[in-house]
Amino acid sequence: MVPYSAMLDVPHEVVEHVSWLIYARRRELNSPWRKLGCFQQALLTLVHLRKNETLARVGAGFGVSTATAGRYVIETVEILADQAPNLHDALASVKPWEHVIVDGTLIPINRVAADEPYYSQKHKRHGMNVQVVAAANGTPLWFSRALPGRTHDLTAARAHGIVQACLTRQILVLADKAYQGAHATICTSYKGRELPDRYRQFNRDHARLRAPGERAFARLKQWRIFRRARCSTSRIGRTVAAVHAIEIAWRSG
Q: Which of 55, 155, 168, 252 has a beta carbon 3.0–4.6 Å from 69's, enabling a disulfide?
């Protein structure tokens, strides 16, 4: 392989922020010396997450082995995932008069037909189900851990405690028809073709208010690692949390 120079569409301040987190972890572990410095380790991880380069390619570009690149990525992802807010902290930032949007998406993965738990009938492909709680303007507040792709959105929302947490805080939740039957404080549109005019108007207003929630996943999937994840399914949830922490630093920077 031949290395080449390229640009990464991530602000320099974000790379510095990640490198300082890595530096703090190295000091904590009393492990100051590594083949790559903190900034280079942060940059390697961001290249892998943003561009979905294989570990072999990104390792070659930074002059380390595939195994070393993998260790760097796993370590950095764990450091960043620890910075992501949990569900209760995320909901604590919601004002009493505000609503949130809940939605689910599928993170595509490399699997074969035999891996039935990961196959989503809705999307007709293998993947992992991830839920988001977003603010009314579409800003993601919290991402869930990843569940096998065949998991229904409502089942996932209940498993992650979203339904109960929003009910406890009396937060109005807007969601699509996949969440019908959740009750509590979750509001979905009406089903059916021959609906009264007031129901059709309600569905239009509901869709308009819920639409910004799509931005949360659109922003997430700008990180190409989520267009077809190659890592272990057990690490996808932590990777989502890590990217969320990066996005928070990006917005606040």
A: 55
Q: Which residue has the tokens 């595939």?
A: 66
Whether residues 173 and 226 fall in one domain = yes
The range of the structural domain enclosing residue 150 comes to 87-230
Three-state SS at 107 = strand
- Whether the full predicted model's pTM is greater than 0.85, yes or no, is yes
State whether 101 and 206 are in the same domain.
yes
Amino acid at 170: Q
Helix orientation angle between 38-51 and 12-29, rounded to the nearest 10 degrees: 120
CA distances from 44 to 26, 55, 68, 185, 208 (A): 17, 9, 11, 43, 40
Structure tokens at 179: 């969440």
Residue 158 has pLDDT above 70, yes or no: yes
240 within a domain of the structure (yes/no) = no
Q: Which of 171, 142, 125 is nearest to 243 (CA)?
A: 142
251 is a domain residue: no
224 in the same domain as 132: yes
Neighbouring C-beta atoms of residue 121, cutoff 10 Å: 9
How far is it, in rounded angstroms, from Cα 25 to Cα 29? 6
Give 88-108 pLDDT, tens digit per residue.
Answer: 999 999 998 999 999 999 999
In this structure, which amino acid lies at residue 88? H
